[in-house]
Amino acid sequence: MSNSVKIFDTTLRDGTQGEGISLSVEDKIKIARKLDELGVHYIEGGWPGSNSKDIEFFERAKQMTFRNAKITAFGSTRRKDSKAEEDINLNRLIESGVSAATIFGKSWDFHVHTAIQTTLEENLAMIFDSVKYLKSKGLEVVYDAEHFFDGYKNNAAYALQTIQKAQEAGADWITLCDTNGGSLPGEITSIVSEIQNHISTPIGIHAHNDCELGVANSLAAVTAGARMVQGTINGYGERCGNANLCSIIPNLQIKLNFDVVSSDQLKSLTLVSRYISEIANMNMPVNQPYVGNAAFAHKGGIHVSAILKDASTYEHIVPELVGNKQRVLVSELAGQSNVLVKAQEMNLDFGKETQKTKAIIEKIKDLEHQGYQFEGADASLELLLRDAFEGLEEIFTLESFKMLVEKSANHAVVSEAIVKVKVHGHTVYTAAEGNGPVNALDNALRKALVQYYPDIQQIHLSDYKVRVLDEKDATAAKVRVLMESTDSNSTWNTLGVSNNIIEASWFALVDSLRYALISRKRIDPANNENVERFGLMNH
Amino acid sequence: MSNSVKIFDTTLRDGTQGEGISLSVEDKIKIARKLDELGVHYIEGGWPGSNSKDIEFFERAKQMTFRNAKITAFGSTRRKDSKAEEDINLNRLIESGVSAATIFGKSWDFHVHTAIQTTLEENLAMIFDSVKYLKSKGLEVVYDAEHFFDGYKNNAAYALQTIQKAQEAGADWITLCDTNGGSLPGEITSIVSEIQNHISTPIGIHAHNDCELGVANSLAAVTAGARMVQGTINGYGERCGNANLCSIIPNLQIKLNFDVVSSDQLKSLTLVSRYISEIANMNMPVNQPYVGNAAFAHKGGIHVSAILKDASTYEHIVPELVGNKQRVLVSELAGQSNVLVKAQEMNLDFGKETQKTKAIIEKIKDLEHQGYQFEGADASLELLLRDAFEGLEEIFTLESFKMLVEKSANHAVVSEAIVKVKVHGHTVYTAAEGNGPVNALDNALRKALVQYYPDIQQIHLSDYKVRVLDEKDATAAKVRVLMESTDSNSTWNTLGVSNNIIEASWFALVDSLRYALISRKRIDPANNENVERFGLMNH
Q1: Which pairs count as long-range contacts for B151-158, CB under 8 Å and 24+ apart, including other chains?
Q2: A22 touches B at CB < 8 Å
Q3: Helix, strand or coil, per DSSP, at residue A214
């Protein structure tokens, strides 16, 4: 049996059934391009029979060139008691201009009776006629046997007949679907193995994640002989999502030695996953396997001290194989070794400067004791270390700020901030409104600084988290504010701690701007005049 | 072999190794209580040898009563070339006062050489001595064989010797750990099966999710004979997290018919999962299997029309088995059943008053759309229902408030609030300072009300949480504030939502005081003169 497994991506079709996902035609085009770069073999673009947005996608896709992937369109078997040739759905598939079409039909007798309400015989005819018609038009046909596993468990003989009909009609692939996501790997293994005694057409698997087994079920099917895997990027999809290709591809290729994509394509996995989450406007879970920001992040002190000796002590693969990288989180659980790693990343001479090293570790411990937690705030930590080792000039100094929130009965609440800062010897005194107090403060500070540092216009606060550190005396307790900021190139995190949420936000805000201006200078050595102007030279 | 599987929860220990998770002692106590309600058999509370916060947890846990769970403490085998009796770590376990302890030791020869840098013989002695010492002190001992599967694949004979040493020394459980999360279910099945030819001690499994196979690997181990599963709520943990108990428990119990928790305990699963995500201040993925808000949500038109005929067409289990519920995303019905349950608890004639029922459900839907979420704020929901069904008089009306935060270089930040309210026809105008803006507002409001409602002196805000609802435009985004309040008798939760964190806090604060004064009147009929004075009679 071939060692090659085909990847059938349905992010653009089944993926959009997930809660919170809605893609424009433009979004879909961008995603299709990335999927092609990743090397997937089929991209299911949509259901031309069900909505006009999808028809437009296929129109545009026709004019594009894909290096690796075939674009496929999705539909269902013909309606009951009608002719395939006259079925709008099937004809839309043909008109979409794709070279491969996927249609689903019923395998579960219960569904034939309850959902489409017809006879078992008519359902078999619907499958046969539909596949036959598409084949007669020269299309490659993927037949999706919906609810196959549930159907097989309930009435094996009938479920088998349905896919035998698809085979007789000439289907190129028969995909066994665990549509409700309720099957276990053991069931998948035995049913996929059994089926191959009766079917010679290549088998595919389409799994869902309702038992958190979507990846395991896909692997089980491939191990039992399936050679196509349907799934979505980041596991997007109805209910608990489809099987996650971002885990399936590296598992098949790195762990099970199947031939899936090239090793260069595999290296693009992390980027593709994050790019698509951006386009889909969905938050990536930091702990997502293989591609998440924390997938190779180490927090426990024992783990950190071991990976310094050899990364494979606590990493199951080399992160770079999937385009990800190791991170060391600095936290109360960690010893000194986490700080050392961070300093190494930054090329600071940490080992030799023992005096400075001791002092900075004492300072970090002290800050952590106050409630600072640097694991989520790499940028604040970097500023701290650079300050200690290199000395950083302040980009401005605060003289004062005032923040006012005012609410009257039946009037919208108003937030204003007044900021007085000294920049390059000049005092700047300015005020701004905002949607809330932190927004007002952010606006006022930017307004004061923008004439000196025009680059801050490109910075945008993308996440803001507040954590109350000790609830004993809740409204008077210490709070930790974590801010995420982005510009066109990168994302960085800063934090602030105070009894006062406004002051904590101020600290995080100031760190965010400082970091942006300092790192901007660093990565672009051509910006020398800026370095001068910003007063950011080391000294 | 017994059909019963023990659940060993390590949310409080391994779970806190996850990025972004940090729990106070108070958080840990709250979570332990919930875990006990869920019916887990072991709660690993922390590592008393590694930090003082954990020591405090065990001090407090000693004074609590747990109905189902044993509290366990975590540590490692003794240091190399030393005596178990003199090992600080091991002695801390004993001093923690728990009846069960978990210690981990090395199974992988590579780790013995590289990480702890000793001989294979000394490592065996470390395991034997440590287990023996804890057993001699009367403790139940769970021996965690770290990296067992990697070790076994590399040097099966040595890996086996390590757990045989633990068995000889009297370990009650031997847990096989896939510490790096890199193993596949097939490997787990064969290794767990093989091990049982050599070991008679009951076997546990500790899996990680680095290949998105944490749940599958745990099930594979149990199917092969393991009878304890270690994992965390919502799969929190280092890197990609630990095996997720919220999926493992229902998979074992509903799908594989193991005896794990009672069916009533299983019904609390969704609530426990969401409660712990709130306490840990971690966003719940909506598509989380079994317990996520979208786990039984239907969006596709075909799916929706089929589930209206029979829910089992697209649901793998009845959602109520795990305390979750069906949602149809095209016609949002969320919240209704919660509301009905709450109304029943309050003895409101919900069924009959159809006009009022419709109106209040519309209102709640609208508020949920704005970002309100009443699951964590029973008191605010009760106020809403009482208002609609009985009519509640306001305890005061707001004319205006002003909140000022001021900071100058080298001076402590100052927060002041000015409040103008009408109480019983009198305008009260007052001001107060606070440790932060919400504290200042709280102080000013109490100062204005206390002469009319002296009871509010007994009320104390015990928790305060802020969640940013839409991070797209971070500092201008909507925020939800959740407040917990207590008096001598009880605890209640209220919430507020606004673009402005100060206004959201104000809403939650006002609800807290309203609820306190209203329920005080209700539960204490002797307080009739107060009822009169408070103007809280129904009308």
Answers
A1: B151/B106, B151/B107, B151/B108, B151/B109, B151/B110, B151/B111, B152/B107, B152/B191, B153/B187, B154/B108, B154/B109, B154/B110, B155/B108, B155/B109, B158/B107, B158/B109, B158/B120
A2: no
A3: helix
User: What distance in Å separates the CA atoms of residue B245 and residue B10, rounded to the nearest whole number?
Assistant: 10
Among B208, B213, B138, B218, CA closest to B172: B138
**Which of the four CATH numbers 3.20.20.70, 1.20.120.290, 3.90.180.10, 3.30.559.10 does domain A6-279 have?**
3.20.20.70
For residue A323, give how far its alpha carbon lies from the nearest alpha carbon of chain B (Å).
15
Per DSSP, the three-state class of A412 is coil
pLDDT score of A464 = 80
Contact check, Cβ <8 Å, A283/B286:
no
Check A413 against B500: CB less than 8 A apart.
yes
| CATH topology for the B397-534 domain | Double Stranded RNA Binding Domain (3.30.160)
ipTM: 0.73
Q: B111 vs A306: CB contact, 8 Å cut-off? A: yes
Confirm if B19 and A376 have CB atoms less than 8 A apart: yes
Length of chain B measured in residues: 539
Distance of CA B283 to the CA centre of its chain: 12
Say which range, A250-264, B253-267, B462-476, has the weakest mean pLDDT: B462-476
pLDDT of residue B330: 42
- Name the B residues in 199-258 with CB < 8 Å from any A CB: 209-216, 219-220, 223, 235, 237-241, 244, 247, 251, 255-256
* DSSP label of A212: S
Cα B64-B493-B465 angle, rounded to 5 deg: 90
Which residues on A lie below 8 Å from B468 (Cβ)? 463-466
Q: Please give the distance of CA B223 from its chain centroid, rounded to a whole number.
A: 28
Chain B from 138 to 177: CB within 8 A of any A CB: none
Quick count: other Cβ atoms within 10 Å of Cβ A29? 17
Question: Most A CBs within 10 Å: which of B16, B211, B332, as the mutation test of the A interface?
Answer: B211
Q: Mind spelling out the 3-state secondary structure of B33-76?
A: HHHHHHCCCEEEEECCCCCHHHHHHHHHHHCCCCCCCEEEEEEE
* Sign of the torsion angle spanned by Cα atoms B106, B107, B110, B113: positive
- pLDDT at A191 (0 to 100): 98
- Region(s) of chain B under CATH 3.20.20.70: 6-261
Q: Among A110, A212, A398, which would you mutate to test the B interface (most chain B Cβ atoms within 10 Å of its Cβ)?
A: A212
User: What is the homologous superfamily of the domain B6-261 according to CATH?
Assistant: Aldolase class I (3.20.20.70)
Specify the amino acid at residue B180: N
| DSSP run (H or E) holding B479 | strand B479-486
Cα separation, B486 vs B463, in Å, equals: 9
* CB contact A301 to B (< 8 Å): yes
Residue A37: count other Cβ atoms within 10 Å of its Cβ: 18
Contact A142, A172 (CB under 8 A): yes
- In B220-285, at which residue ranges do the beta strands (DSSP E only) sit? 228-231
| Residue B538 clears pLDDT 50, i.e. is over it | no
Rounded Cα distance, A81 and B305, in Å? 20
The one-letter amino acid code at B38 reads L
pTM for the predicted model, two decimal places? 0.73
Q: What is the H or E stretch that residue A440 is in?
A: helix A437-449
Q: Residue A297: count other Cβ atoms within 10 Å of its Cβ.
A: 24
* Closest C-alpha among B159, B199, B202, B194 to residue B178: B159
CA A457, A462, B402: angle at the middle one, nearest 5?
Answer: 85
Residues forming beta bridges with residue B431, ordered by sequence position: B418
Query: Can you give the pLDDT at residue A527?
Result: 39
For chain B, give every residue range classified as CATH 3.30.160.270.
Answer: 397-534
Residue B19 has its nearest CB partner, among A256, A294, A306, at: A294
